[in-house]
Q: What sequence folds into this?
């Protein structure tokens, strides 16, 4: 068994980190405070080719494996969490179905510009009454000749307020539950497609998030993204495994950055005659964090490796995402405690990590849904 | 035009570096390509493109230096040359300079660029020493550079101003902040650079004997820790008196 990154992967990581340090990290506070999408940064990252990491070379992609793309996501999350959200939605979800099932005409019109950072994409699962419960999807797709008519409202759509091309989950057969789900491409300018309210969030600022309204939107047959209708769940499982690993690695990076900041503070902050880093109760926080961080990160990369091997890993992806996110939520809380009163101040970054980390609780599946499912699997003896 | 650029991997500026009790230096395992070397690479790429030339990145030292060479390749250098030899382990800058000069000589460059200083030992020695070993002129601390077919014109920072110099090629130029802004490599180039095969060559392969070290490092010490900060208390009048007392004591003044 070999479990380490090779030299190529290590070099790739160092270069991504340098790019994030140079382009994104100097902008983190500005993005958070203004809560504005940094379009110039988006275009720059696109021009560097990162959006195409997972896609075919033919469309400007790199065809990188899962582990390599996860290294990118992990390093990207060391910058702005909001920008990370927008980028990962584009790279993993907003372009996934287009890249896998889109016609050449669609790829030329949507995928290639998206890879180059000239178009913004999103994916639409969530509605007002359903999120992790995919079977609760009420957006419908009805056949009309060769076309499809889409009707419904999607919510909590990252990149929604600025989107050019949305991949929308809809049911072609409401009575079929999970077996009635399919994905459709909806493009800006189509009649009946509108951007609704924009949501104001606690964290991940700079990633515009909102509502998309589909009022009898007519899309041509090739906008159905899949081999046949009703297989949406199967298709989305493939990408959700990657989304969960990616979310877990974001948790690792947010936690690590928060604790590194806190370590710097603890080394310099003197109380009762010595730096607080010398006190056991403070050291314990770092010790506990490091153990859990290492465990979660190792688990996540194992799942990334499983994806690359073509192994079934739905449960492992859920479990690793849960572990990493819980670790992160504890770490960002501990970081604010180390900062004490300063952790409550907007002048320090501790509060930003604390706010940003909250997205982990629902991104990639709520923890209640995930852990309930995993517990059920364990009790059935199928873990 | 045939151009060489000297590169070095140095600790990340955020890496924790400390003097160990035995006099050695402990460095957190976080390394980056030297800031000034990246400026030199960028300038070399621009000159290469303007003159339809080739650019070879050259580094001397252990396996870590390969990452500096890969960085140069990712930015656009045509080739990389790694000089690796046990003689370089002494950390003697003159040995490193002689090794680099021996390697560069085999390439017969028209122009050699290097960073003004490496941000680890901050000696600023290797660039000029390489020029000396190659017996070519050098211009240090350059903020503007115009290279023709057989001569160069450079603006260099000097105390209180800028000095403009002209000279023949071949020459060696050390780059400093302000010369240009290094590009961020495209991911495709990063991937290609990560897979590039970079052979290590020892000094014997350049036909030279390993130079003897001329310098010995006896140890490293951390700077003395700063005394505790005193927050001056009291009424404004008392604070002024206390501050005046501290300042007078500091300069050895009277009462």
A:
């Amino acid at each position: 068994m070999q479990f380490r990154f090779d030299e190529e992967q290590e070099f790739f990581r160092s270069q991504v980190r340098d790019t994030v340090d140079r382009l994104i990290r100097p902008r983190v506070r500005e993005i958070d405070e203004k809560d504005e999408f940094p379009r110039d940064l988006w275009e720059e990252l696109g021009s560097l080719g990162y959006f195409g990491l997972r896609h075919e070379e033919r469309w400007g992609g790199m065809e990188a494996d899962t582990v390599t793309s996860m290294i990118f996501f992990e390093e990207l999350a060391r910058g702005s969490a909001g920008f990370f959200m927008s980028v990962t939605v584009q790279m993993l979800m907003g372009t996934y179905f287009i890249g896998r099932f889109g016609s050449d005409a669609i790829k030329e019109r949507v995928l290639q510009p998206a890879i180059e950072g000239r178009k913004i994409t999103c994916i639409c699962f969530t509605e007002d009454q359903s999120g992790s419960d995919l079977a609760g999807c009420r957006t419908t797709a009805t056949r009309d000749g060769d076309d499809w008519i889409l009707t419904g409202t999607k919510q909590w759509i990252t990149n929604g307020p600025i989107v050019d091309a949305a991949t929308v989950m809809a049911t072609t057969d409401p009575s079929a539950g999970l077996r009635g789900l399919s994905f459709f491409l909806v493009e800006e300018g189509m009649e009946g497609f509108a951007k609704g309210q924009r949501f104001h969030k606690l964290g991940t600022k700079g990633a515009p998030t909102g509502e998309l309204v589909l009022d009898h939107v007519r899309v041509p047959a090739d906008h159905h993204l899949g081999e046949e209708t009703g297989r949406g769940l199967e298709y989305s499982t493939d990408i959700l495994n990657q989304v969960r690993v990616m979310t877990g690695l974001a948790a690792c990076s947010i936690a690590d950055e928060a604790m590194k900041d806190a370590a710097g503070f603890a080394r310099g902050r003197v109380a009762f005659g010595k730096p607080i880093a010398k006190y056991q109760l403070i050291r314990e926080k770092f010790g506990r964090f490091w153990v859990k961080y290492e465990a979660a990160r190792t688990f996540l990369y194992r799942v990334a490796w499983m994806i690359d091997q073509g192994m079934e890993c739905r449960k492992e992806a859920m479990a690793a995402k849960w572990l990493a996110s819980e670790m992160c939520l504890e770490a960002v809380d501990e970081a604010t405690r180390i900062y004490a009163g300063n952790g409550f101040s907007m002048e320090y970054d501790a509060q930003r990590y604390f706010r940003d980390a909250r997205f982990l609780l629902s991104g990639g599946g709520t923890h209640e849904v995930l852990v309930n499912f995993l517990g059920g699997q364990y009790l059935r003896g199928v873990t | 035009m045939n151009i060489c650029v000297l590169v070095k991997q140095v600790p990340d500026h955020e890496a924790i570096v400390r003097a160990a009790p035995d006099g050695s230096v402990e460095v957190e395992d976080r390394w980056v390509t030297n800031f000034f070397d990246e400026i030199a690479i960028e300038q070399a790429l621009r000159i290469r493109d303007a003159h339809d030339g080739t650019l070879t990145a050259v580094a001397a030292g252990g396996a870590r230096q390969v990452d500096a060479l890969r960085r140069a390749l990712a930015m656009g250098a045509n080739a990389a040359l790694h000089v690796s030899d046990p003689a370089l382990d002494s950390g003697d800058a003159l040995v490193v300079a002689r090794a680099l000069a021996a390697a560069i000589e085999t390439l017969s460059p028209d122009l050699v660029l290097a960073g003004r200083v490496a941000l680890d030992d901050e000696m600023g020695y290797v660039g000029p020493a390489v020029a000396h070993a190659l017996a070519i002129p050098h211009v240090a601390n350059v903020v503007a550079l115009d290279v023709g077919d057989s001569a160069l014109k450079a603006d260099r920072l000097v105390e209180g101003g800028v000095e403009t110099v002209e000279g023949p090629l071949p020459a060696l130029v050390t780059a400093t902040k302000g010369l240009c802004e290094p590009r961020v490599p495209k991911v495709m180039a990063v991937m290609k650079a990560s897979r590039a095969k970079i052979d290590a060559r020892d000094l014997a392969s350049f036909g030279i004997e390993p130079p003897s070290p001329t310098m010995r490092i006896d140890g490293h010490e951390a700077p003395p820790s700063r005394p505790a900060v005193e927050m001056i208390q009291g009424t404004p009048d008392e604070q002024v008196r206390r501050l005046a007392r501290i300042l007078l004591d500091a300069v050895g003044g009277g009462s």
